[in-house]
Design a protein that fits this description.
single chain; 475 residues; alpha/beta; Rossmann fold; 3 domains; 7-stranded parallel β-sheet; binds adenosine-5'-triphosphate; ATP binding; nucleotide-binding; Helicase_C-like; helicase
Length: 475
Amino acid sequence: MDALLHARLLPISFEKPNRTCFLSHSQNRTFNFFFSMYHTNPGLLFISKFRTPKSLLNTSSLAHGAVDKVGSPTLREICEDLVPRHILDRMEEIGYVMPTDVQRQALPSLLSGRDCILHAQTGSGKTLAYLLLIYSVINTAKSSVQALVLVPTRELGMQVAKVARMLAASPTGVEEEHKSCTVMALLDGGTLRRHKSWLKAEPPMIVVATVGSLCHIIERQFLKLESVRVLVVDEVDFIFNSSKQVSSLRKLLTLYSSCNNRQTVFASASIPQHRRFLHDCVQQKWTKSDVVHVHVSPVEPMPPRLHHRFVVCHRNKKQQPLLSLIQTDAPESGIIFVSEQSERSKRAGNAPSTSLLIDFLKTSYLGPLDVLLLEEDMNFNSRAVSLLEVRKGDGYLLVATDVASRGVDLPQMSHIYNFDLPKTAVDYLHRAGRTCRKPFSDMKCTVTTLIVPEERFVLQKYENELMFGCEELTL
Ligand SMILES: Nc1ncnc2c1ncn2[C@@H]1O[C@H](COP(=O)(O)OP(=O)(O)OP(=O)(O)O)[C@@H](O)[C@H]1O
């Protein structure tokens, strides 16, 4: 009983608040208590985030929201005395109170100074984990670049910089009593001239950069990495796999800085052949030899709340089935992923599938959602405008190429449509991962893939690789 009296109740609503009991998964004592309480009070609602026997849980009356667990520390408790208090206050003000699994597992190693590989599902909160580490090492009295976050796309860079600035802002009603932490987004296509003057005048403490822009700045001697204490590479497998970015990344990891002088963090939801990668990290001196691999849910690489479906269509006749799906699903918001146009098709002067689909939806879709486009070939400003529109939170249908599939966080997203089958299982995982992005929520999200009959076996391969089941839908 004692344990229950000490449970922290979060400000969330339950249908029967007085009959709610909070459980920890790890304490046998509590587990036994759970069984005895259930038998004596069958109407009692038990809540556990972990593997409590589902048959005993009245999940239908479980309201959405965070679930606190007896004995499970809050983010503040994990970071106390290591992360500045104003950051922790701000973090709670934003709504980050309880840690997600990856944060709970990784923060002790991160805050103890160990190099880490954060390997956890999409939407699991890896960004906050590494940003808390960064804020634990930043010395605001020093005007030098102390932390670097490398990202593969401008979109992800803009987002990470935004969260970093949000955490550094003073909590509401609190006078700023400390020098604030400056964050620079150094992303391809940005006004590099302005960045160069900024770096010369007063270097920012945190730089969020794409690999190409950072190398450009370093090679022109506007920035040295000697004062960098933390280097994060987000979506690390993507950057290592990108022929355009890999050689610059290697230089940044070993030539322009040394793993002995910095703490290195790699993050991704997918690290294919992770044992090999871990070996390479040490061998190639990308990390120190005692690097920690924080691997969350290895047997469930995708969020379990995702519902996967597929529809078999005729080639070149996918638009109408897509429209019917959207009309039936009535999504809150959705992304329609389309393959990038091939060089051959460009040379032949064909219109890209994205434009064709946008034109079709603009004339045929009569629902309430705005139709927007986000693709690699758009210029920097148009891409930024599209994302800004999307983030306003009103409903939209975003027609996008894989440029939107990595890291982009759009919490209100309920539906993903793969208009074209992704090229690999990893691409499927990241596209699907643009939904189900509210930790502690039980909101159901759907991924629907439109395939031609010959592609069924490819999708089956993805199902085996990623350990999920896909239901056939007949329209
Ligand atoms: N402790 C927390 N409590 C509540 N919400 C959280 C917490 N940590 C993160 N979030 C929210 O979870 C969402 C996903 O977080 P984040 O973007 O860091 O995921 P990720 O693990 O980096 O995913 P991906 O692999 O797709 O990049 C964000 O909207 C973020 O605000």
